[in-house]
Design brief:
CATH class: Alpha Beta
Order of helices and strands: HEHEHEHHEHEEHEEHEEHEEHH
CATH topology: Rossmann fold
Distance between the termini: 35 Å
Shape: globular
Radius of gyration: 20 Å
Largest sheet: 4 strands, parallel
CATH architecture: 3-Layer(aba) Sandwich
CATH superfamily: NAD(P)-binding Rossmann-like Domain
Number of helices: 11
Helix content: 40-55%
Structural class: alpha/beta
């Protein structure tokens, strides 16, 4: 998000919060001199209040959550506590600071849970039926945003993002697959491990997703909720087959029971008419180009890994 703003809106002063153990500093290497980073933990109300009181931002992107769905079944309390209380602290600190920013709250398609085929494409009016502790935490965040809008007239815009390519998030299936392909090409791994291949997803590029978030903050209506998603719908298995076709060597694959979720969401196809009609947003990056970008990123990362052993 910071990279998108820096590249496309250089007049904007960017502030961000980070914990001492965060990967933020690595992710911001390319624009570190363009971002003001504040030590803060959303689970600590005092530090949240202090940063907000000092900066008084006119716009806030709330993207912070523990977002690994599978892990949320293993450590549900940690995920629920972090995501719900962190969001509550943020909204309450904004209210107590008594200033009036526009807030883009990042939710997820996981809140819709398992939908029937006749319910797709999924609209914003679809029932919320979370199937994982992570999804429960995001539903709660979503409802907190609506509550603070209705109770305190805070300018909170909720977005529900569907699947996207993000090279830096290794917990996403696409990134995990690309990393493993690059490692197999380099001789560091023998076979690619995967979970459920039957899940159907509509996927966009993270760079398109960040453009969409910017438009949500600047164009959309507070109190409203908007689906954001791409135009390329594939099953996880189809994506894996295409990715393997780009490899420079044969890729052997194997199902890993550890990667199977106790309950999965297998049909995530969005209706994004409400968002596109409000913003005129259209994705710029096509599916094949996004996959190439993802694989190229991990080939470079694996090459760096190999250089450590030289």
């Amino acid at each position: 998000m910071a990279e998108y703003i820096s590249a496309n809106h250089p007049e904007i002063v960017i502030h961000g919060i980070s914990r001492w153990r965060s990967t933020t500093k690595d992710n911001l290497q390319a624009i570190r001199d363009k971002v003001h980073i504040h030590e803060c933990d959303l689970n600590d109300f005092g530090s949240v209040f202090s940063v907000l009181e000092s900066v008084q931002p006119s716009g806030i992107f709330h993207l912070a959550s523990h977002a690994n769905v599978r892990t949320s079944f293993i450590t549900p309390h940690a995920v629920l506590s972090n995501n719900i209380l962190g969001t509550s602290n943020l909204f309450e600190a904004i209210r107590v600071c008594n200033f009036d920013p526009v807030i883009q709250h990042c939710s997820t398609s996981e809140v819709y849970g398992q939908v029937a085929p006749e319910e797709v494409p999924i609209t914003e009016d679809a029932s919320l039926r979370p199937t994982s502790p992570y999804a429960v935490s995001k539903v709660t965040q979503d409802l907190l945003g609506l509550s603070y809008f209705k109770s305190y007239q805070m300018k909170i815009i909720r977005t529900r993002m569907f699947s996207y390519f993000n090279p830096r998030r290794t917990d996403l299936f696409a990134t995990s697959f690309a990393r493993q392909v690059a490692r197999i090409e380099a001789g560091l791994q023998d076979e690619l491990l995967h979970g459920n291949l039957d899940s159907v997803r509509t996927i966009i590029d993270v760079r398109d997703a960040m453009h969409a978030y910017w438009l949500a903050l600047t164009c959309c209506e507070p109190g409203e909720v908007y689906n954001i998603g791409g135009q390329n719908t594939v099953s996880v298995g189809e994506f894996l087959n295409y990715l393997c076709s780009l490899a420079t060597t044969n890729i052997s694959t194997k199902a890993d029971p550890k990667l199977i979720r106790p309950a999965d969401v297998t049909l995530q196809i969005p209706n994004t008419n409400k968002f596109t009609e409000k913003t005129n947003w259209q994705p710029k990056y096509d599916f094949k180009g996004s996959v190439q970008h993802l694989l190229s990123y991990w080939r470079k990362k694996v090459k760096q890994e190999l250089n450590l052993f030289v």
